[in-house]
Automatic annotation (TrEMBL):
Record field: catalytic activity: Hydrolyzes the link between N-acetylmuramoyl residues and L-amino acid residues in certain cell-wall glycopeptides
Protein name, UniProt field: N-acetylmuramoyl-L-alanine amidase
UniProt KW Hydrolase keyword: yes
Signal sequence range: 1-21
PANTHER family: N-ACETYLMURAMOYL-L-ALANINE AMIDASE, N-ACETYLMURAMOYL-L-ALANINE AMIDASE AMIC
């Protein structure tokens, strides 16, 4: 068997630092280059300090995963333009203390050599990865040999509740800023702003607006630029016993003339092709980050859970209608603004959930509004009205 020179991820296994100790500064990746062909490819990344790393493989499609300690990527986008064996390269944070590089390969690929070298001038280190094309049998062997679940060891998969325990009688709302960390989301057509920053800015404004309402406790599933898997987002909402889950997005479309807000609820069958395509893209969030998709729990077989899902779905539809009603005549909506599809992030069986596209980064007029703090404030206030209206109806009906 070919040996792989892979450094042990010692930094990720260190004991927790003493209380009050300063957190180590993130590594800085300040340069990169890639060269090669469809048989062999070399990737070099330059760091300010010596990086510890580990390498793993994911199938369907084949990907090479390089896990790193927390890293700030100060790279020019063109320095890691995919070529050779790789047709997509993504990098970014995976949560506190960890970052990741995901190399999507055109076919079965193996890292045949990996090492960290110090620069000749002593001012930094280079991570050198040599990859080669292999057959499917060898790739299957690599997958079988590794003991890896897709998580980063520095990040707890059972993420703790990140907000105080719910006050008695409070109406709790989880506001989920879509994307984050390695998953940048859509890119603005004018400013090249990443969707993950747009959704977080809006989510923060919405939480602040909701928390000014009597009896409401709103919180963020993520409050910084970090990656959360789709199941984690749902789990956080359920940990807080959320009464509502609102996931914020600002996608792109090929049809750049389409603009306006859209509200989505979950359904086994998509309402239209636009909804189906959007759900398919959003459901790839975990795959983009190199997280193997887990099989869904067999809850549907349980008649009680199935009934809960039906009731929750009805409440979700009522929330969506309330949002559309609040937006009408106040902000731009697309045609048929309430649509539905199989969004994985909306699958909590007991939490009414909507996915709100506040606009499209592919439309220049929408993009300008999405970056306008005053517009975000206006939309947040309209959403708060919709939530209060929904809340009154839900309480009246025992929801």
């Amino acid at each position: 068997m070919r040996a792989i020179a892979v450094a042990v991820v010692a930094a990720l296994a260190l004991p927790i630092a003493a209380v009050g100790a300063a957190e180590p500064a993130p590594l800085l990746a300040f340069g990169a280059r890639i060269a090669g062909d469809d048989a062999r490819t070399r990737l070099v990344i330059e760091f300010d300090r010596k990086p510890e790393f580990s390498i793993h493989y994911v199938a369907n499609p084949p990907r090479v995963i390089v896990d790193l300690p927390e890293t700030s990527f100060g790279l020019k986008p063109e320095s890691l333009e995919p070529r050779g064996l790789f047709d997509a390269i993504r990098y970014g944070g995976m949560g506190a203390g960890a970052s990741r590089l995901v190399l999507s390969a055109k076919g079965p690929t193996e890292v045949t050599h990996a090492e960290v070298k110090s620069e000749e001038d002593g001012k930094g280190f280079r991570l050198v990865l040599d990859a080669a094309r292999i057959d499917q049998a060898r790739f299957d062997e690599l997958l079988g040999e590794q003991r890896w679940t897709g998580t980063v060891r520095a990040v707890k998969t059972d993420r703790p509740v990140i907000a105080p325990v719910k006050k008695p009688g409070a109406f709790v709302i989880a506001v989920d800023a879509g994307h984050g960390g390695i998953d940048t989301g859509a890119i603005g057509s004018l400013t090249k702003t990443e969707e993950k920053h747009v959704t977080l800015a809006f989510a923060k404004e919405l939480v602040a607006t909701l928390n000014r309402q009597s009896g409401i406790e709103a919180f963020l599933t993520r409050d910084q630029d970090q990656f959360l898997s789709l199941p984690q987002r749902v789990q956080i909402a359920r940990q807080r016993s959320a009464n509502l889950f609102i996931s914020i997005h600002a996608d792109t479309l090929k049809q750049k003339d389409i603009r306006g807000a859209t509200v989505y609820t979950i359904s086994d069958k998509a309402s239209d092709n636009l909804a189906a395509d959007l759900a398919a893209r959003e459901n790839l969030s975990d795959e983009i980050a190199g997280v193997p998709l887990e099989s869904e729990p067999a809850e549907v077989a349980d008649i009680l859970i199935d009934l809960t899902r039906r009731e929750t779905q009805a409440f979700s539809v009522n929330l969506a209608r309330s949002v559309v009603s609040s937006f009408e005549g106040q902000i731009k909506l697309i045609n048929n603004p309430h649509r539905h599809a199989g969004f994985r992030v909306l699958q909590a069986p007991d939490v009414p959930s909507i996915l709100l596209e506040i606009g499209f980064m592919s439309n220049k007029d929408d993009e300008k509004q999405l970056l306008d703090p005053e517009w975000r404030k206006k939309v947040s206030e309209l959403l708060a009205v919709a939530v209060q209206r929904y809340r009154q109806t839900a309480v009246a009906n025992g929801g």
